[in-house]
């Protein structure tokens, strides 16, 4: 079959019709920062906001991909369509390479009701955050009912990426002490639901108690997340986990918090992406403008004070933007 001619109009129509090839092409253009990709997102944006999104985060090796795969199986059994966007801020690979060996997700590659996409930074975290937001919007516009956004870890970069989701699911397993310490220290935002995976582990129930004691410190009982035991490879506890996510979502919706959260997330994303673009321009100006570069070198030699250099950088960036 001949490949279609992907004009902007064809891409917009294809994405809105749920055409997988059009969606894949549009996402590739977004990743490449193509103006056509941006125009497609701009045109389909009014058709977004219908998909429920779940951010899935947690330390590497706890079984997030397996759990997402099990959740996809469960959601598909409920006759709902699903999108999965898997984000690896440390990987130079894109376009499916990250998911190639993720067996639980690979089970769904041929299911027309499931769309799976993996993304890497190519060394530009700000670009990844921007591409991720636009990818979620495109998958949403394509008519998927539920979108899972999976990240590889719980560092600051992943927190920024996951901030666009309606709900956050934190996946832990016995032995993932750093994540528990981050919860305890308040570094990690309290998620909506916590899953302790690999429930057969002798220390699984002990970990549930430890995490429960941490979240109990939150004085707002409504915000305390349910903590569930799961075994992703066998699908145990997955139905209960999905039920907990749905209950959390309905609770937020009834209290008007879901709409407020979406507004806050989108507002935060606009600000974060604007800052990322400005930061990129600043770096490019310092690298390309000899006068600015010399001023920065002067700061390093302590011949020029930092504020004078900053003023010159801001002036140069402003001039280049005109």
Topology:
Blueprint: H1 8-16, H2 20-31, H3 35-44, E1 52-57, H4 64-77, E2 82-88, H5 103-106, E3 114-120, H6 125-141, E4 146-151, H7 156-162, E5 167-172, H8 177-185, E6 193-197, H9 204-215, E7 227-230, H10 238-254, H11 257-288, H12 290-300, H13 306-321
Parallel strand pairs: 1-4, 1-5, 2-3, 2-4, 5-6, 6-7
Task: Describe this structure in a few short sentences.
This protein is an alpha/beta fold. It is 53% helix and 13% strand. Helix 1 (8-16) crosses helix 2 (20-31).
Describe the structure.
This protein has helices at 8-16, 20-31, 35-44, 64-77, 103-106, 125-141, 156-162, 177-185, 204-215, 238-254, 257-288, 290-300, 306-321, and strands spanning 52-57, 82-88, 114-120, 146-151, 167-172, 193-197, 227-230. By secondary structure, the protein is of the alpha/beta class. The chain has a 7-stranded parallel β-sheet, sandwiched between helices. Strand 5 (167-172), helix 8 and strand 6 (193-197) form a beta-alpha-beta unit. Helix 1 (8-16) crosses helix 3, helix 6 packs across helix 11 (257-288) and helix 11 packs across helix 12 (290-300). The longest helix is centred in the C-terminal third of the chain and has 32 residues, at 257-288. Mean pLDDT is 84; it is low at 92-101.
């Amino acid at each position: 079959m001949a490949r279609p001619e992907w004009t902007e109009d064809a891409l917009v129509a294809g994405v809105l019709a749920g055409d997988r090839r059009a969606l894949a092409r549009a996402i590739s253009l977004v990743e490449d920062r193509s103006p056509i990709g941006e125009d497609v997102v701009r045109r389909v944006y009014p058709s977004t906001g219908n998909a429920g999104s779940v951010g899935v985060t947690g330390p590497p090796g706890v079984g997030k991909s397996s759990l997402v795969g099990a959740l996809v199986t469960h959601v598909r059994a409920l006759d709902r369509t699903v999108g999965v966007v898997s984000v690896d801020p440390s990987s130079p690979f894109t376009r499916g390479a990250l998911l190639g060996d993720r067996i639980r997700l690979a089970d769904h590659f041929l299911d027309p009701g499931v769309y799976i996409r993996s993304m890497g930074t190519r060394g530009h975290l700000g670009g990844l955050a921007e591409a991720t937001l636009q990818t979620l919007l495109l998958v949403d516009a394509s008519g998927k009912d539920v979108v899972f956004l999976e990240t590889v870890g719980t560092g600051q970069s992943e927190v920024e990426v996951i901030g666009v989701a309606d709900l956050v699911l934190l996946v832990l397993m016995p032995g993932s002490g750093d994540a528990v310490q981050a919860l305890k220290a308040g570094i990690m935002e309290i998620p909506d639901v916590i899953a302790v995976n690999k429930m057969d582990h002798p220390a699984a129930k002990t970990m549930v108690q430890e995490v429960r004691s941490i979240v109990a410190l939150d004085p707002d009982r409504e915000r305390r997340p349910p903590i569930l035991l799961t075994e992703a490879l066998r699908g145990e506890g997955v139905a209960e986990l999905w039920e907990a996510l749905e209950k959390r979502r309905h609770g937020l919706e009834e209290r008007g918090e879901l709409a407020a959260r979406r507004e806050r997330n989108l507002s935060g994303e606009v600000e974060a992406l604007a800052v990322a673009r400005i930061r990129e321009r600043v770096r490019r100006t310092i690298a390309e403008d000899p006068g600015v570069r010399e001023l920065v070198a002067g700061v390093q030699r302590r011949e020029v004070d930092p504020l004078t250099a900053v003023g010159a950088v801001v002036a140069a960036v402003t001039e280049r933007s005109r």
